[in-house]
Amino acid sequence: MLQLNLLDSRSAEFQAQLGRLLAFEATQDEAVEQAVAEILAQVRRRGDEALLAYTARFDRVPAKSMAELEISRAELEQAFAGLGQARREALVQAAGRIRVYHERQLGESWSYVEEDGTRLGQQVTPIDRVGIYVPGGKAAYPSSVLMNALPARVAGVTEIVMVTPTPGGERNQLVLAAAALCGIDRVFAIGGAQAIGALAYGTQTVPRVDKIVGPGNAYVAAAKRRVFGVVGIDMLAGPSEILVLCDGKTNPDWVAMDLFSQAEHDELAQAILLCPDAGFVQAVADSIRRQLPEMPRREVIEASLTGRGALITVRDLEEACELANRIAPEHLELSVEDPERWLPRIRHAGAIFLGRYSSEALGDYCAGPNHVLPTAGTARFSSPLGVYDFQKRTSLIQVSPAGARKLGAIAAELAAGEGLPAHAKSAQYRLHG
After folding, report:
1. Is 75 a catalytic residue?
2. Inter-residue contact 331 to 242 (CB < 8 Å)
3. Rounded-to-integer distance, Cα 393 and Cα 99, Å
């Protein structure tokens, strides 16, 4: 029988119990790190030859040339055209909503002029070339194509290169259709650490990119960590998380299924309920046990709930908000009567879903905001993926002659204090020029 973690914040052991529940860290596995280091070194040294060898080994695709692994524009368009009408319309509508939302994030260049004529400002420009990693192992994620590619397109990225593994040579048509819809420039049927290496270093066929975004398994995460600095990365994503903060008046079946929606991702996913109504917590527990046998991914859900999930009875909603900030979840549902009242109390969350009808699943696919979110408590200092991740800010400094006299004296004094005479003289030369 499913063993749920039923906790109570009034218990003397609660803080320790919660601490153990949140103690998960995506620690670096030495075997994974060694394997990834070798793969990256081989890709950097041997390029396409290494990619072909690793793709044959890990994905069972014995291609003789990279031409066999590059997916043509015609194949992408064919995949889009081959979708059933309902699925094609859903993809198009989701893409439209995601694009509209992200258009509001566009940063703008600006400047101002001081009294002496000195102009200071900021120039915003897009990244030239971006690489998108789309998982293709246990499941395929066309939604990840939309969420990563569309903000890049809105930002004005010139070229988008997508990589996605195709185990056994099976190419997911919905993923390819999403790539066609987003106008992705080049798509390669490669995955794993070798794909990250190809994007970071470039090969004879795969172009080197400036930034890599998109989730992946432990090998992909380790590879992204290692190439950071050579290229930019979005974040190191951990297992998915949902925290439902409920007043006890939502349908318990809804809450149970919302917890399932993230637990089904991964055995290490985390699903937590916070509620001041002990009777409701028990009702959700009963619903979980009743609905779980019907779920196709019940084994994954059960492992997730047993290992890292919890149903927690709290003193009140004020305490629930305090605990939510401590947890800093990827997804937070405020399933309460007046969510606007409690919203100001939430400081740390990747995405907040307000009200009983705002299920997290809608955010995964089509609400509009990005579903690439900080995990493992990093919402304390990180933000969702957005247009700003595909734009750069460059400072603008245009000093007038009068400004050079004023600023030169300040700079020379500070440079002298730092023991950097060339800095001082560079500023002083313009004091009287």
Report:
1. no
2. yes
3. 22
Residues 242 and 312 in one domain: yes
Contact 179, 76 (CB under 8 A): yes
Please give the model's pTM, rounded to 2 decimal places.
Answer: 0.93
List the catalytic residue out of 331, 333, 348, 371. Answer: 331
C-alpha dihedral sign at 258, 261, 263, 269: negative
Is 423 part of the annotated catalytic residue set? no
**Segments forming the whole domain that contains residue 177:** 30-105+126-233
The C-alpha atoms of residue 326 and residue 101 are separated, in whole angstroms, by 29
35-59, pLDDT tens digit by residue?
A: 999 999 999 999 999 999 999 999 9
How does the average pLDDT of the chain come out, rounded? 95
Of 264, 330, 333, 360, the active-site residue reads: 330
Nearest Cα neighbor of 187 from 162, 204, 211 is: 162
Task: Identify the CATH number of the domain in which residue 243 sits.
Answer: 3.40.50.1980
Give the total residue count for the chain. 433
The pLDDT score that the predictor gives to residue 397 is 97
Measured between alpha carbons, how far is 340 from 342 in angstroms, rounded to an integer? 5
Q: 409: alpha, beta or left, given left = phi > 0 and alpha = psi -120 to 50?
A: alpha
Q: Same domain, yes or no, for 227 and 331?
A: no
Residue 60 has pLDDT above 60, yes or no: yes
pLDDT in tens, 249-259: 999 999 999 99
**Cα separation, 279 vs 247, whole angstroms:** 11
